Amino acid sequence: MLLEVKNLRVQFDTLMGLSSPVDGISFSLEKGETLGIVGESGCGKSMSASAILRLVPPPGRIVDGEVLLDGTDLLKASAANMRQVRGHYMSMVLQDPVASLNPVFPIGNQVAEAVTVSQRLRRRSLKEKVIELLQRVRIPSAENRIYEYPHQMSGGMRQRVAGAISFASNDLKVLIADEPTTALDVTVQAQYLDLLKELQADVGFGLIFISHDIGAVAELCDKVSVMYAGKIVETGPTRTIINHPRHPYTKALLDCLPRLNEVKRLEPIGGEPPNPFAFPPGCRFAPRCPRATELCHTQYPDFVQIDENHDAACWYANES
Ligand SMILES: Nc1ncnc2c1ncn2[C@@H]1O[C@H](COP(=O)(O)OP(=O)(O)OP(=O)(O)O)[C@@H](O)[C@H]1O
Ligand SMILES: [Mg+2]
After folding, report:
1. What counts of helices (H) and strands (E) characterise the chain?
2. Pocket test for ligand 1, best of 11, 16, 19 (most atoms within 8 A of CB)
3. Residue 95, pLDDT score
4. Whole-angstrom Cα distance, residue 184 to residue 127?
5. Which residues surround the ion ligand 2 when the cut-off is CB under 5 Å?
6. What is the DSSP string of 166-185?
7. Domains (ranges, CATH) in the chain?
8. Least packed by Cβ within 10 Å: which of 38, 87, 152, 253?
9. pLDDT (tens digit, 9 = 90+) per residue, 136-176?
10. Residues 6+ apart with CB under 8 A from 280
11. Which residue's CA lies nearest to atom 26 of ligand 1?
């Protein structure tokens, strides 16, 4: 297995008390595979990504779990080893690519800096490598554009530059794309998803694709994990999750989507996600769940295995 995350838990100790925005999540990813992570805003998707790369901002801490990359636990690695891992093997494309670029340097310099982390190259070969990376993310006339500053480029092109920075390593194994398309318009989004797919086919990295956009997830992902209030509540093959969800939260999320050939008023999920400083004792979705019983309000449900690759944390997951 390329990447195995086991029982990963992040804790914040703040003035308001203790909270666990990532509360014991587990999943695995094979080479060339794409895992989607979906869920409402604030459920812990980005924090999970940061935890996998050991970039949780203070006062947050990883308090439990394992992150096994090719069998080695990154949570036990030294800081120096971890920098190597981030430079060579695991990389993240950020939610806001514009914010991740430095406005005062030409984009060529910024891509070059990312290359230098993993490879020592003479200036001429470095420049060639930078151009090659920009071409790889389909930036037209890359050789002229290395001197441009971020503000001279369109949103879509900046997104590609941010992509080139994440793909700078020759031996990228895992790429985490966190909401890579929210800042872009629809056509540019579609192109970017195509690009991700092509690059994955070329390089063969495992991709973790974090998104609100179930349409994009359906197009890109082999399997999906649904997060709610710091926990994964359902995981399964993408088709199964979309067509036969078993967790009431997954069902509610899908009910919010417009369906083709169906005129239906979109219903947002009633109620709000729980306050992370005071999660309810039982199932965290119970206060909003139409199916909830006394049991749901008092005891957190274990995962019920529905199929070989499909499980859901619901007391009633076996009801259809
Ligand atoms: N510095 C912090 N101190 C305490 N809690 C924090 C801190 N930063 C983030 N959190 C909490 O972590 C939780 C998860 O946040 P995260 O950014 O992972 O959500 P998300 O699922 O990525 O949401 P979105 O879809 O909006 O990007 C949130 O409830 C947030 O309040
Ligand atoms: Mg986020």
Report:
1. 12, 12
2. 19
3. 57
4. 28
5. 46
6. HT-STT--EEEEESTTTTS-
7. 3-89+171-280 (3.40.50.300), 103-170 (no CATH)
8. 152
9. 888 999 999 999 999 999 888 888 898 888 888 878 999 99
10. 274, 286, 287, 297
11. 41
